[in-house]
Specification:
- With 161 residues, this protein is α+β, with helices and mostly antiparallel strands.
- It is 32% helix and 34% strand.
- A five-stranded mixed β-sheet has the order 5-8-9-7-6, covered by helices on one side.
- A hairpin with a 4-residue loop joins strand 8 and strand 9.
- Helix 1 packs antiparallel against helix 2.
- The protein is elongated and about 75 Å long.
Length: 161
């Protein structure tokens, strides 16, 4: 058993294009409203402060790790933020692994270990996901920016079982 992961991927909260665009448009609206307020309005300065706060939060979220995915020792390990538990998916119990889309929707919220309707979801950004089905029929949907390499690593580990 090797302690070196076959595959590692880190997904960050603030690096998805649609939420970044929404936050930047809000900040631009605040700056534009600040620019067009009269000098005698005392609350106009608050708009500039809110715009800078939105930009600062966007920068911080770009470095905020949502979860890390590793394929190591015939299992998939998902490690999240501070208070989340380590999720270990044993590849011995997996009967099917395939690439699919995460969701048909354009906007998806980041989730970690979300249990709904017989599926467990892990997602931060992107469109692709790995669908893992275990012996009990439980479906794990793990969003990935590098779905092809992730699936290759899972199949490689499953070969050695």
């Amino acid at each position: 058993m090797s302690d070196k992961p076959v595959f590692t991927e880190k997904q960050y909260l603030g690096r998805e294009w649609i939420p970044i665009t929404i936050r930047l448009v809000l900040a631009m609206f605040c700056f534009a409203a600040y620019f067009f307020t009269d000098e005698r309005e005392r609350n106009g300065d608050l708009l500039a402060v809110v715009g800078f706060v939105i930009i600062t939060i966007s920068i911080i979220m770009g470095f905020l790790l949502h979860f890390r995915t590793r394929v190591i020792n015939k299992s998939v390990l998902l490690d999240g933020l501070w208070t989340t538990r380590l999720v270990k998916i044993d590849l011995n119990s997996i009967v099917k692994a395939e690439i699919g889309t995460y969701s048909r929707y354009l906007f998806n919220n980041p989730v970690y270990n979300l249990h709904t309707k017989g599926t467990i979801r892990f997602f931060t950004a992107g469109n692709d996901a790995i669908h893992l089905t275990d012996r009990d029929g439980l479906l794990y949907i793990i969003g990935s920016q590098h779905a092809n390499e992730f699936l290759r690593a899972i199949k490689e580990e499953m070969k050695h079982l």
